[in-house]
Amino acid sequence: MKLITTTAALALLAVSGPALAQSQPAQSGGLVTHQPKLSSDAAKAILDLQTAVSKNDSASIPAKIAAAKAAAKTPDDRYAIGIMELKAANATKDQAGLAAGLQDMLNSGSVKPEEQIGLYDALAQTYTNLKQSDKAVDAYQHLLQLEPNSVDAVAGLAEARIAAGQAAAALPLLQQGIKMQEAGGQKAPEAWYKRAVSVAYDAQSPMALDLAREWVSAYPSADSWRNAIAIYRNLSHPDVEGTLDLLRLMQATGSMSTAGDYALFAESSADQMNYNEAQAVIDAGIAAHTVDASNPQFRDIISGLKSKPKATAADLEAALKMSPTATNALRIGDRYYGMGDYAKAAAVYRQVLGQPGVDADVANLHLGMALARAGDKAGATAALNAVGGTRAAIAKFWLTYVQLHA
After folding, report:
1. Which position among 130, 138, 253, 299 has the lowest Cβ density within 10 Å, counted as fewest Cβ atoms?
2. Sequential DSSP letters for 333-355
3. Matching fold, domains 28-196 and 246-404
4. Which of 310, 311, 289, 286 is nearest to 299 (CA)?
5. What is d(CA 4, CA 2) in angstroms, rounded to the nearest whole number?
6. Are 81 and 87 in contact (CB under 8 A)?
7. What angle, 0 to 180 degrees and rounded to 10, lies between the N-to-C axes of helices 43-54 and 75-91?
């Protein structure tokens, strides 16, 4: 039988992902401001501007802003003009005008320390609304300098980086935000993990694998396991045996949910001549009402399996007594695993470890898997930690399972 090569779908993760920071229009009423002292030279022009703003005289406001700026002599003059710009723009929901007013206030030289956080926060949100990502990044960076422990500012800066096409710079920020929330005694919302995984996956970053495991550890569910494993498969393209070991993990975590999962599992097991396991997978899919035995694809699989030999426990015991090669003994262990006799499988894997011709990484991985299913957390952890090479990443996923389940 051929391996089915269909790519697993990422059921929950849209590539763009949900934004963590939702921008709202800046409003002058929510900002902390002080009463500026106007210079005698600029007072008339600024008061004329104030009158136009209070009357919503939008036709004359631009000219009066220009006149007031020309007359301005002091930082307080420029600050007062910025306030008027902000009020005028807020009345007409003019995002560009809001940004100009906020920027003029910040550039005036009159801003008090207690006012800076609110102004930079509003400016960052406004530039986000305007889709001026580079300017939003700059504003959020200023905000974080003022509020280094603000999770909202970290989220905003991360989203601005993403919008600016700087995914590599956004990922550490997302991780930082998660850790900040954990340090504060609360678990970060699942949206943070999903966002980080989505950004890393979209960028085809190796960080996606670690982030996917962190997501599963924090929010273990059938959906998170399914997506985390799909991410690994899509990024790493494991061979048939690696794919099978990941499908076994999906089976252990209850994250097999589509007919394609069962078809791929059965085909992969049959490819390894583990026909007992392939048959058990098909039977489980039918029992779960996920596999339709009348479907042409499954009719072929079921028909093919009928003609294949199914080993019994007695058959496997007899085969072991015939002193098979270490490689064949390893496969006998896999047969025990496929039959659900995890203790016996583990005993066989232990026997072949270190023998010539046996891939120690595969043997340790399968030993760890069997011990995990048998509930031996310490033994499984030791075996899985011994896995190196191309199987190491798969072992890490199984280690996550052990930490959560075994």
Report:
1. 299
2. HHHHHHTT-HHHHHHHHHHHTT-
3. yes
4. 286
5. 6
6. no
7. 10
Q: What is the dihedral of CA 250, 252, 254, 255, to 10 degrees?
A: -10
H helix intervals, 184-307: 190-202, 207-218, 222-236, 240-253, 259-271, 275-287, 296-306
Indicate the helix (H) or strand (E) that contains 393. helix 392-404
Structure-token pair, residue 15: 């590539």
Q: Is 355 exposed, middle or buried (0-12, 13-18, 19+ CB in 10 A)?
A: middle
C-alpha separations of 398 from 72, 140, 153, 188 in Å: 68, 39, 35, 23
Give Cα separations from 403 to 183, 242, 337 (angstroms). Answer: 21, 21, 20
Q: Are 84 and 49 in contact (CB under 8 A)?
A: yes
Low-confidence ranges of the chain (pLDDT < 70): 1-30, 406
Query: Tokens 């003009």, residue?
Result: 81
Alpha helices by DSSP H, listed for 147-205, are 151-163, 167-183, 190-202
Q: Write phi, then psi, for 15 (nearest 5 degrees).
A: -60, -35
Cβ neighbours for 59, distance < 8 A, ≥ 6 positions apart: none
Supply the pTM of this predicted model.
0.84
The pair of structure tokens assigned to 14 is 């849209």
The model's pLDDT over 2-29, given as tens digits with 9 standing for 90+, comes to 222 222 223 223 323 335 554 343 444 4
What does the pLDDT read at residue 130? 97
Report pLDDT for 293.
93
- Rounded Cα gap, residues 61 and 78, in angstroms: 16
Distances (CA, A) of 33 to 100, 112, 114, 121, 256: 16, 8, 9, 14, 57
Give per-residue pLDDT as tens, 357-374: 999 999 999 999 999 999
What CATH number labels 246-404? 1.25.40.10
First to last CA, the chain: 33
State the DSSP code for 56: T
Residue type, 335: R
The domains of the chain are located at 28-196, 246-404
Q: 């595969």: which residue's tokens?
A: 362
CATH topology of domain 28-196: 1.25.40
Q: Which residues of 235-256 are buried (b: 16+ CB within 10 A; e: fewer)?
A: beebeebbbbbbbbbbbbbebb
Cα(10)–Cα(197) distance, rounded to whole angstroms?
Answer: 11
How far is residue 116's CA from residue 106's CA, in Å, rounded to a whole number? 8
